[in-house]
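Please review this one.

:::
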Amino acid sequence: MKGIIALHTLLPFLLFSAILPLPFSAQPRNAKKPKTPYSDNNHHRLSSSAVFKLQGNVYPLGHYTVSLNIGYPPKLYDLDIDSGSDLTWVQCDAPCKGCTKPRDQLYKPNHNLVQCVDQLCSEVHLSMAYNCPSPDDPCDYEVEYADHGSSLGVLVRDYIPFQFTNGSVVRPRVAFGCGYDQKYSGSNSPPATSGVLGLGNGRASILSQLHSLGLIRNVVGHCLSAQGGGFLFFGDDFIPSSGIVWTSMLSSSSEKHYSSGPAELVFNGKATAVKGLELIFDSGSSYTYFNSQAYQAVVDLVTKDLKGKQLKRATDDPSLPICWKGAKSFESLSDVKKYFKPLALSFKKIMNLQMHLPPESYLIITKHGNVCLGILDGTEVGLENLNIIGDITLQDKMVIYDNEKQQIGWVSSNCDRLPNVDRDLEGDFPHPYATNLGIFGDRCPASYEETGCE
């Protein structure tokens, strides 16, 4: 459940992006401070990274997912990765309304509800009017996504196993949502995934919780392959030593996603009249969304440049708002990219800092054999002046969100293979870091709480 509003009937299912969470309330009380299993003395010993293989694509699936083992004994859940939100949640057997999975694949709470006085409960509510009648009451949550899809449920704590690149295997208890009431807007079928892995920078995110336990640096990154799949990582072990372009994060106390700017739109190496764009990096959105003014500028520039070329508007293709067809059906972007000029986003605060967008970063080939513009009008779908950098633009780039240095970085990358791994390890996702998706499921938990494991 992620991404931006799906406007078109042939999009495979509804996607969401939690860039507009509901204005929930929260009043910090005398919350119990959880015991930490690791002291400052061994922080650097345990600080490492975990990597996870991704599945999915921009088109036709429209999403990228990761599989996580949760609970003990562990159970596998496929979750949409979403840097536009921080709350992770899974469909919950409570019972469950609006769930897409059969009951035996739902998460079942087991006396592990987070209490409403817990400090983490306050992190999922935005205002100070949160009502906690009794300290023993469960912590409710509700998150509404940009297209008005939503998840309602309670917070729980459970084990999520991680296998780190330094060889350690740990199984901390972390908090996440158990969603028992999901709503989807529009006429499309709901996503078939089990929930959302929120990668945002709020304190309730799994990333922040792992960092607070001293397990990882407060860094997360992803590499989405245009061929499908890719990888996700927590920690800083996989960051290349050179070649990364860094720009500062824009900070806001009420937002839990990653944004940067201002940026200027560049077309074919030349500056345009589109300036001052603040950009949200959102792995939960299939496509890129600009405000109406910037969107129309892109459409005008591309359309004007295509005059006299062997492309005509394909008004009968409902895949996306603007599509073109050729004399014969296109099989891949390599057939058409010669007709289109590169775009770029230039971050003016730093000289020569740009995010380059070749045609592959803003076009798709549909099942009808046409080429379509993967930049959409965000104002038209209710995003007002927000500008979203979605998966289509993030493809074939390693994108790093460094919350410690408050910066976002990217570099062109082969997302089908992990960088900076031991050369003696074999395969596209070498053992032991990714063959089991960065997690394990058959060992006793290493944790500060009793587990009953023998």
